[in-house]
Design a protein that fits this description.
- There is one protein chain.
- This protein is of the alpha/beta class and 357 residues long.
- A hairpin with a 2-residue loop joins β14 and β15.
- α2 runs antiparallel to α3.
Length: 357
């Protein structure tokens, strides 16, 4: 962690020095080809920022955080500095630079401060002839918090307000560095669960995610009526059959799960299992956070999974009677990753399974 903080400080100091060094060069060129000079300098700074992040001695998420500093701090500062330098000779260009800087800063504020807590309740209806009675399912994925608090409590209370028949947790509950902080977060999470007291007629069921330590599920849900799946197993709930996957099995793209006569739900943390021979009517996964950052006409930047990018969020029909739903999750990646979401709001998913075709 100290290495990461030191890398961020160094990167920002060098980035600011590079920006300050570029502005005198632009000033010297403002009488001849100032726009060309600004574009060349901007590309040079972008290249230096990328290489600096690429070759920094920190993990990949930390490199992404450095790039976020470059985009939302160094970039706007260079544009505002360029606007000041070019205001007299090229007032129109200066105004464009100012506008671009304001847009970048606005996107940064939105991505870091607004969207990560702009929770959405996504409703999905699925029909099946295998169902005899309607069943409402609430899916909670990737709480992935370091400090359980009002936002997470709001999400859980929204789940209870939807009056589900079945509640499914898809893993990744606490992500905190350091033993004391992790222990405190686990206790706070358990206390919050007791206060909210999630309940459903068909039960509350949970699988483990990749940030969850082995055996930690009993800490998370201590004193609560939550049935956890540390290992892969199948349970008959009456109107449907539920198969919960271990973290390792959810990661297995060659996983095989046998069919059942009843409506069959298979849920795990990682969506890779959906690539295997999984005979389920409904497959549920999280892990991808929907990409967490999605670009227009491009989609998710990263999914950290083997499934096609189009599967990384929302509903995908894998076959006429086989549906995959991947949740964008409630929280986001912690640790060294940039704590942001863009065009990828957090969500809880409410599914109404109804009889029919």
């Amino acid at each position: 962690m100290l290495q990461h903080h030191w890398a961020v400080i160094q990167y920002n100091i060098l980035g600011l020095i590079a920006v300050l060094a570029a502005l005198p060069v632009l000033s010297a060129c403002r009488s001849r080809l100032p726009v060309t000079a600004m574009i060349i300098l901007a590309l040079g700074l972008a290249g230096l920022g990328f290489l600096g992040a690429l070759f920094s001695r920190i993990d990949p998420f930390g490199k992404l955080q450095l790039l976020a500093w470059a985009v939302f701090l160094h970039g706007p500062l260079f544009l505002l500095g360029s606007a000041c330098v070019l205001f007299k000779p090229r007032r129109g260009t200066a105004l464009v630079c100012t506008f671009a800087a304001l847009v970048m800063v606005s996107i940064g504020i939105y991505s870091f401060l607004v969207e990560p807590r702009w929770l959405e309740t996504t409703h999905v209806t699925i029909r099946s002839a295998k169902l005899k009675v309607p069943v409402r399912i609430a899916v909670i994925s990737d709480i992935q918090t370091e400090y359980p608090g009002p936002y997470e409590e709001e999400a859980l209370r929204e789940v209870q307000a939807q009056k589900p028949d079945l509640i499914l947790w898809l893993g990744d509950y606490i992500q905190a560095t350091g033993r004391s902080r992790y222990t405190a977060a686990c206790k706070a999470f358990n206390t919050m669960l007791h206060e909210v007291n999630l309940q459903a007629p068909l039960g509350v069921h949970a699988v483990r995610g990749n940030v969850d330590r082995t055996g930690i599920m009993r800490w998370y849900f201590s004193g609560l009526d939550v049935k956890s799946f540390e290992r892969t197993r199948t349970r008959d709930l009456g109107p449907l059959v539920l198969t919960g996957l271990s973290w390792e099995d959810s990661l297995n793209k060659r996983l095989s799960v046998p069919p059942h006569k009843k409506y069959h739900i298979v849920f795990g943390h990682h969506p890779n299992f959906s690539l295997g021979k999984v005979h389920g009517d409904l497959l549920l996964a999280g892990h991808t956070h929907g990409g967490q950052v999605r670009l227009p006409y491009v989609g998710p930047v990263l999914t950290l999974s083997r499934v096609p990018r189009s599967w990384a969020s929302g509903l995908t029909r894998l076959a006429p009677d086989k549906t995959l739903i991947v949740s964008r999750g409630v929280g986001m990646e912690r640790g060294n990753a940039p704590p942001m979401r863009f065009l990828c709001r957090p969500e809880i998913v409410i599914m109404d399974l109804v009889p029919g075709r």
